[in-house]
Amino acid sequence: MPEIIGVRNLKKKFGRNAVLRGINLTVPPGEKVALVGANGAGKTTLLRVICGQLRPTSGEVRVLDMEPWKNAAIRKRIGFLSHNTYFYRELTAEENLSFFSGFVGSKDSIDEVLELVGLKRFKSMRVSAFSRGMEQRLAIARMLIHSPEILLLDEPTSGLDREGRELLREILEKMSGKVTMIIASHNPDDIELCERGYIISDGKIKLDAPAKEILETYYGR
């Protein structure tokens, strides 16, 4: 089966601190994969290497058959939802999305994605006035605005209320089979969206299994 994301013997160090210690994983087209593990296990670092924000110390990472940190164009085909939102807080929601659109070549209108996440009526509000949940919704809009082929989501339901979590679940379910996803999460409801999962501990893959088995092993569900 062809792979959209391939990671082989990936190692990443920050100084003397080894965060990833030989990660191997593959994600075929259209699959939804969960990353599960305690804080500090290496989930966020792995996502940042896959999206090209970080270079590996050693090993191989290929996304759409390219090395992401060497090909800026590939980043336009990835939507990354970081645990931190990184918005310009004195700009409005619309201005933040407009600024980001200039880098990724947006395919969808700003009004469309704001409507999708329930923020259209707040588009002229400065982000500094947003609640944490509203910021997370805006981050979801930013992730989707260029219709990416790959979604990398780091704790996507963080800060969202029940309505926001249900909205995100509905958005991701509609993309099922059309977009390749990796979801790093502590929320078992997020893992239920996935077909397969990896448990990461101390920078290593401890289990590669169907999502149902991951839920049973890690959460006792």
Task: Give a nutshell description of this structure.
With 221 residues, the protein is an alpha/beta fold. It is built from eight helices and nine strands. Helix 4 crosses helix 5.
Structure description:
The chain is an alpha/beta fold and 221 residues long. It has two domains: 1-77 and 150-161 and 177-221, Rossmann fold, CATH 3.40.50.300; 88-148, no CATH class. Helices cover 32% and strands 27% of the residues. The chain has eight helices and nine strands. It has helices at residues 43-50, 72-75, 93-104, 110-116, 132-144, 162-174, 188-191, 211-219; strands spanning 5-14, 17-27, 32-36, 58-63, 78-81, 150-154, 180-184, 196-201, 204-210. Strands 5-6-7-3-8-9 form a six-stranded mixed beta sheet, with helices on both faces. It has a three-stranded antiparallel beta sheet with strand order 2-1-4, with helices on one face. Strand 8 and strand 9 (204-210) form a beta hairpin. Helix 4 (110-116) crosses helix 5 (132-144). The protein is globular. The model has no long low-confidence stretch (mean pLDDT 92).
Our Rg estimate from Cα atoms comes to 17 Å
Main sheet characteristics = 6 strands, mixed
- For CATH, the homologous superfamily of the largest domain is named as P-loop containing nucleotide triphosphate hydrolases
Return the string of H and E elements: EEEHEHEHHHEHEHEEH
Strand order of the largest sheet: 5-6-7-3-8-9
How many domains? The number is: 2
Beginning-to-end CA distance, first to last residue: 30 Å
CATH top level class name of the largest domain: Alpha Beta
Low-confidence stretches: none
User: How much helix is in the residues?
Assistant: 25-40%
The CATH topology of the largest domain is given as Rossmann fold
Q: List the total number of helices.
A: 8
